[in-house]
Amino acid sequence: MVERQTAFSRIIPHAVLLTGVAIVAFPVYLAVIGSTHETAVIANGQMPLTPGREAFDTYYRTIFTGGSRTTREPVGTMLLNSFTMAMLIALGKIAISILSAYAVVYFRFPFRRAAFWMIFVTLMLPVEVRIYPTYKVAADLGLLDSMAGLTLPLIASATATLLFRQFFMTIPDELVEASKIDGAGPFRFFFDTLLPLSRTNMAALFVILFIYGWNQYLWPLLITTRDDMQTIVIGIKKMIVTSDALTEWQVVMATAVLAMLPPVAVVVLMQKLFVRGLVETEK
Amino acid sequence: MAAVTLEGVSKIYHGGVQAVRNVSFDVPDGSFCVLVGPSGCGKSTLLRMIAGLETISAGTVGIGGRVVNDVEPADRDIAMVFQNYALYPHMSVYDNMAYGLRNRRTPKPEIDERVREAARILAIEPYLDRKPRALSGGQRQRVAMGRAIVRKPQVFLFDEPLSNLDAKLRVQMRVEIKRLQRSLGVTSVYVTHDQIEAMTLSDVLVVMNAGQVEQIGTPIELYRRPQTRFVAGFLGSPAMNFLPGRIGREPGTIMLDERPIRIATPPAAAPDTQVELGIRPEDLRLVPRGQAGALAMHIEFVEELGATQLVHGRIAAAPATVQVPTGAIPPEGTIELAVDPAATHLFDVASGRRL
What we know:
CATH superfamily of the largest domain in chain B: P-loop containing nucleotide triphosphate hydrolases
Number of helices of chain A: 14
Strand order of the largest sheet of chain B: 6-7-8-3-9-10
Oligomer: heterodimer
CATH topology of one domain in chain A: MetI-like fold
Largest sheet of chain A: none
Number of helices of chain B: 8
CATH class of the largest domain in chain B: Alpha Beta
Order of helices and strands of chain B: EEEHEEEHHHEHEHEEHHEEEEEEEEEE
Radius of gyration of chain A: 24 Å
CATH topology of the largest domain in chain B: Rossmann fold
Distance between the termini of chain A: 33 Å
Helix content of chain A: over 70%
Helix content of chain B: 10-25%
Strand content of chain B: 25-35%
Structural class of chain B: alpha+beta
Number of strands of chain B: 20
Shape of chain A: globular
CATH superfamily of one domain in chain A: MetI-like
Radius of gyration of chain B: 24 Å
Structural class of chain A: mainly alpha
Order of helices and strands of chain A: HHHHHHHHHHHHHH
Largest sheet of chain B: 6 strands, mixed
């Protein structure tokens, strides 16, 4: 196709793109703006489009003391909880699934196929489907209201195992054989060759899984009751529903903005590796 | 340094497929042994059994007088060069070469010395800090060789190391491998399907077919006196011509289409036995028309090689090839060829063995 660049043909795509960006960005902008005004300004139903003067106060109060009416916990604690949970889930998933993929691909043991299929089948059972038995197990193990209870049941990952398996299968057998001749046992091969080669894959997975962990709602809602174990996603929800008082919209907005920052930071910081991990085929 | 000894080695895969059948031979200390054969003949499997990458179903493999059947690859004191080089993509050239030594807890200064020495020999010193992906095919090949050299093993194993290179580089690396093996004096086993590589590199040539050894000897022995029709057809380029016939009643003659052809040594087989007369293209000589005992060849087409031409055609009904000086023959029609009675090979049709 011959591309003819006229002024007009350049304007159209840009106009489309800008419209798209505006549609996506406007609510975010509103949230940022909303977090800089007083409750009363927002509550009268006419949301201003320019920043107010309360930004510093609102954010300070949100992070360190929390909303005055509902959750009683400072958002700082929630951020920390969410961050710890997302980190543990992402890192745990990567560690577990890279190890199980390593076992499935490189070792011959009885029922290897069966083991692989069992992992594969769990793909069809998301947390929501098995939530009652999972809760029961977590409760029996005394994991309620603990970080272990928040993260452990979410750590097993068929998707990540599958991804690593596919990647390992593309690594030529000769590399394993060369390692064997070079005197590297299974541990050495894993740490010296497989891990470094999986770096970009791990990065891509980390980004996806961190966001997955960060956005968890249903499971934390069930497993935590204590306020100091609350994650930020649940915190926002609780702040909005105030039955007998005015919702502190500026605090809600500030919390929403704060909740957005860590996932954005992860994506921005790891973007290069992330894209390479998804695209790269050469090892 | 060490000799490699194979005794009755067989490989049977789980499905019952027998890849290698009862192979026995010795590779003397310091010699260069080439295993050659068509794909699927079991040559790579045999090499991998020597390396310890495949289990041995029956028989024993010895390296330097020690039976290594149950010894881990790392403890067999071998080094292997793979077809796709199998360099560690995330390590620098230096680390690729040093890795095996580090795993063996060789002292650092010694590793450094050995790696630099190998790099000097292979002329890859400027690339020590690069990753394999920044190297050309030939350079990667050298790194793979370097990784083998630094270990100072008792045996080098090569698994078709040149087949990923272009034709020119292949010839160049072939010469280098030979020179390197000579200067280091390390016993080597080399697998290839390329008969030119096999002929040029080997001290001991092993021709394999269908999991079995067809013949073992020096390359020139195998070329001059192939013991089976398979070896005769496999070695030499262009390949040997095979003309079907039978042993004549008169001693020392072979009947091709009822015309007697003289051969130097009368075979020890009964007259009228069905045979194939093997004649290498270079042993057929162009002669003037009408000479007694000459073979008539009908020209089908001619390939130009520059100084010579390769003439493809038929002698009687059998396809045949002959190499003649450029311009010596008409582009089509029939030419007459004389056979050197001493340069003929006779094979029993039924068994494929030399008569």
